[in-house]
Amino acid sequence: MMSVRERARKAFQATRALGLPDQEVTPVLEHLLKLFNNNWDLIESEDYRALIDAYFELKENKGEDNRKNVVGDYGESSRLPKRLCLQDSEDQASPIKGSARQILSPEEHGKPSSVNLQQGATFLNKKDSSSSGCSNSCKKPQQQPVTWEKNRPLHIINDITKGTENVKISLVGEIGKQELPKFTYMRDNIIYQDAYVHISLARVADEDCCSGCSGDCLSVSIPCACAHETGGEFAYTTDGQLRDKFLKACISMKQDPEGHDSVYCQDCPLERLKNEYKPEKCKGHLVRKFIKECWRKCGCNMQCGNRVVQRGITCKLQVFWTREGKGWGVKTLQDLPKGTFVCEYVGEILTNTELFERNLKGSGNEKHTYPVTLDADWGSERVLKDEEALCLDATFCGNVARFINHRCFDANLIDIPVEVETPDRHYYHLALFTTRDVRASEELTWDYGIDFNDDEHPIKAFKCCCRSAFCRDVKR
């Protein structure tokens, strides 16, 4: 038989996989042990679902009541989560020493990835009511079976990345409220079909990389060749965040595009897609600031301070079901300083024509993510070929960024083009950085740059639910 220490260690392993802090889980676990008469079977059953559900219920109650001592102390003044509240009962149930699976309905068997405790299911006979910690609304008869006041089972996936990222990214949602998303998780962009993305070491000249560098480029006083591509200085600090001056310039471009330079295509691919025979004049494309990172042909190593995006995700993130009608969203499980790299927007690389044609072939019932147009350098050529007018679509293949919701103007993330393996700006990586300090458990959002009044755009805009005071969707 396992020791108490070993059982506690495994319980913390399960909650850590969801990004739950040990210091917040500890009092919940201790209280459940008292409540269940130290019956570990009830806590361990179904991947610790009673513990996890109690934790989330307690966090919800804390937000509703704004009580500072709920998580930190289960004293007499605190109250038990309402789904674990002891109810008065005329039945004298005997203690259940087996697995919680025994009291589930037959259709609930075989669902280890979900958390589901049926309403009215009796768990044990509580002989000692002195340590119940229940609210004043709960009576305290001599024997009190534990019941679930309402049925709000949870979907929990420990890692949607299937081990492809540096950190696990969990998903938590309520069963019955939504379907689990169906897509293939990819860490890197993939080419769909005819998109022209020619990446070759032979195309990268010595002046396009810092082949003479070694170690960490940020440790030297003279910027390397890659830094010169970013305006003569590095975009990153030695701590791995964006430099404040660079970030402010990018935010200004995003919030006030009319105050910055734009380029105009002689024959714009977007306008050509709207009307192939008589396209209108180009509406203009913002000349965006780029980050040029060092890469494989450079002499520095992978830990170089100018290789932030290509090292991948390091932040603790969680996908969750929002309550504002926005569907799935992403929140951070840790505090993020201003200028922190969160993730890259990953998807299929398509031409705009391919995306439009694929959407036309669909049944119309598919739920699409809004595509990202890679137009930061479209105006550099007189005529851009259709296979060079690229976009990213994460509907079928993508990473955690596909769940990040849109917010007009004052989002806490900003997208910045990043060059890694090619100097060809027709294709680039789209990296998301924090625009300010972001607190743990805060939802992450970014401005997709949608013109909600453009009814002729090949990809129809969604109804905006961002609730920002600066929302651009006037028709909402």
Structural account:
Keywords: Chromosome, Metal-binding, Nucleus, Transferase, Zinc. This is SET domain-containing protein. InterPro entries: Pre-SET_dom (IPR007728), SET_dom (IPR001214), SET_dom_sf (IPR046341), SUVR4/1/2 (IPR025776), WIYLD_dom_sf (IPR043017), WIYLD_domain (IPR018848). It is found in: Chromosome; Nucleus. The chain has 476 residues and is an alpha/beta fold. The protein folds into two domains: 1-80; 185-446, Beta-clip-like. Helix content is 18%, strand content 15%. The chain is built from seven helices and 21 strands. It has helices at 4-16, 22-35, 40-65, 225-229, 244-255, 269-274, 352-361; strands at 114-115, 125-126, 144-145, 154-157, 170-174, 184-185, 190-191, 262-263, 285-286, 291-292, 317-321, 328-332, 341-344, 348-351, 372-373, 390-393, 397-398, 405-406, 413-419, 429-434, 443-446. The strands form six sheets. It has a seven-stranded mixed sheet, covered by helices on one side. It has a four-stranded mixed sheet with strand order 7-14-16-15. Helix 1 (4-16) packs across helix 3 (40-65) and helix 2 (22-35) crosses helix 3.
